[in-house]
Specification:
The complex is a heterodimer. By secondary structure, chain A is mostly helical. Chain A has 14 helices and no strands. In chain A, helix 10 runs antiparallel to helix 14. The relative contact order of chain A is 0.13. Chain B folds into two domains: 123 residues, Four Helix Bundle (Hemerythrin (Met), subunit A) (Up-down Bundle); 40 residues. Chain B is 78% helix and 0% strand. In chain B, helix 1 packs antiparallel against helix 2 and helix 2 runs antiparallel to helix 3. Chain B is globular and about 50 Å long. Chain B starts with a helix and ends with a helix. At the A-B interface, helix 5, helix 6 and helix 7 of A face helix 2 and helix 3 of B.
């Protein structure tokens, strides 16, 4: 069998795809946590991690080793089955979401016809994992955190979907490769600035990060839904969180910032530059703004973001009809 | 061959989780089993080539409806289900109803689709078809459904706001 045939066979493709996704996932988990701590440090006039490796780049690996070595504690009174299952149910959708991300013109696991819809429908499975963690922990802080998290993600899913819908109306496709190729002349953010802003704000809320981090507000809820988790199970939640930051930024890059398109560098490099610029922005927002109150959070979503997204959708449809 | 195995696996997951959704003792387990069953039905749609319907199935039924049910269970006081005495009359009525329902459904599908051949992955570009149908032939039902939903939302708000 010659090389081309081997590369074409379906099993090899599946194995290569899984390996690729795992590599991107691992590198992101290490890099994004390091970036978060570095940015936080410099914003607070500290240095952040400095000891392990050059400017602490290997700190994430060291922490990972520590978490693997830790004992997995199952507290008394938890629902053992759901408690053990929850982290993985919150985590596996993040890996599935990698399937449709176009890293370059060729690097994409599957170019689904419904790529965009697939991405957002898979992402709502994670909510059930978070809920299971909160309920199974048998702890009031966990339960409160889970309730807040679910209420928040249901609410903010609406502006997200509405904002990407205006992009879909312009590109006339849910296929991510077609959305990227539409942006060969200009980035969609230039014609849809409102949708971009709504998307980024709602995405930060979906990620449960400051200023929308009431599900894990330390001062009232200890750590929210993962209060009772320790060791590797906690690490799984933690990795899911940082993978989600990457995925949300990758999707924003694809939808609004021209995807992998760019001069001089290869497409993959451009994709990662744009994505990590957005990751940096999300981290920056976390360390620059205080937390909202739950009622402010909800009224901001329902009374401001959703109407703005709807109006934007209406105007987009109007202009698409005219021109 | 391979697709037959996948089909049977999906079928087993759907049936098993549907049974679990009925017979498990804790309400929370029932809800999760139901979500699992719904999710596997989405897998069945993908198997038939209806990607768009599958994505909507996950988005609406797993992402919204199951989560809403779970939310209600979570906020309600813990229910302990004691094994009840089996009322033979109720069981008979239940079995008869579900059997009648099954017969009617099966007869309808059999009459209409017996000759139609469904092959795996046949349906393509279903988003365009669905959109086109919604805007042309199905425009009136579509508008009526959206109106009913609007009424339902208003009803929910009225019920929630009423103080008594």
């Amino acid at each position: 069998m010659d090389l081309a045939m081997i590369a074409d066979s379906i099993i090899v493709k599946v194995i290569l795809s899984i390996a690729g996704v795992m590599i991107v996932f691992t590198i992101n988990a290490l890099f994004a946590t390091w970036l978060e701590r570095k940015v936080a440090g410099h914003i607070q006039l500290r240095l952040g991690p400095m000891e392990v490796g050059f400017h602490g780049v290997l700190q994430g690996a060291a922490d990972g080793l520590k978490l693997i070595a830790k004992e997995i504690i199952t507290p008394k009174g938890v629902d053992k089955k759901l408690f053990a299952l929850a982290p993985y149910l919150a985590f596996f959708p993040t890996l599935l979401m990698f399937v449709v991300i176009p890293f370059s013109d060729k690097l994409q696991v599957r170019d689904l016809n419904i790529g965009l819809l697939y991405f957002f429908s898979i992402s709502c499975i994670a909510t059930i994992g978070i809920f299971m963690a909160g309920w199974a922990s048998n702890n009031k802080y966990s339960l409160m955190g889970a309730v807040r998290s679910i209420a928040q993600s249901i609410a903010y899913e609406i502006p997200i979907i509405l904002s990407i819908l205006s992009v879909v109306i312009i590109t006339q496709s849910l296929k991510l490769s077609e959305i990227v190729s539409y942006q060969s002349k200009f980035w969609i953010v230039l014609v849809q600035p409102v949708a971009f802003v709504v998307y980024v704000i709602s995405a930060i809320a979906e990620l449960n990060r400051t200023p929308f981090d009431i599900p894990e507000a330390e001062s009232e809820l200890v750590a929210g839904f993962h209060t009772e988790y320790s060791g590797m199970r906690f690490a799984v939640f933690f990795m899911a969180e940082y993978t989600n930051i990457f995925l949300v930024s990758a999707m924003a890059t694809t939808l609004f910032l021209g995807g992998w398109r760019g001069p001089f560098f290869p497409p993959v490099v451009w994709f990662f530059i744009k994505t990590y610029a957005l990751v940096f922005f999300i981290i920056w927002v976390r360390w620059a703004f205080p937390r909202l109150r739950p009622d402010q959070l909800m009224s901001f979503c329902w009374k401001f973001l959703t109407p703005v997204a709807l109006l934007n959708l209406l105007i987009t449809t109007f202009f698409m009809k005219i021109f | 061959m391979f697709s037959d195995i996948v089909f049977i696996i999906f079928w087993l997951i759907i049936a098993l989780s549907a049974v679990l959704a009925v017979f498990l003792q804790k309400p929370i387990y029932n809800a999760l089993a139901m979500a699992c069953s719904i999710f596997s039905v989405a897998g069945m749609y993908i198997f038939l080539g209806y990607e768009f319907i599958a994505a909507l199935q996950v988005l609406v039924y797993v992402g919204a409806i199951s989560v809403a049910i779970i939310f209600v269970i979570m906020l309600s006081p813990p229910v302990t289900v004691q094994p009840k005495k089996i009322n033979i009359y109720k069981v008979l009525v239940g079995v008869a109803t579900s059997f009648a329902f099954f017969i009617v459904f099966f007869a309808l599908l059999y009459a209409k689709y017996f000759d139609a051949k469904f092959t795996i992955g046949e349906a393509k570009g279903t988003i365009m078809q669905v959109g086109y149908m919604l805007a042309t032939k199905m425009a009136v039902p579509f508008e009526i459904i959206s109106f009913i939903l609007l009424v339902a939302i208003m009803g929910a708000i009225v019920l929630a706001k009423r103080e008594d």
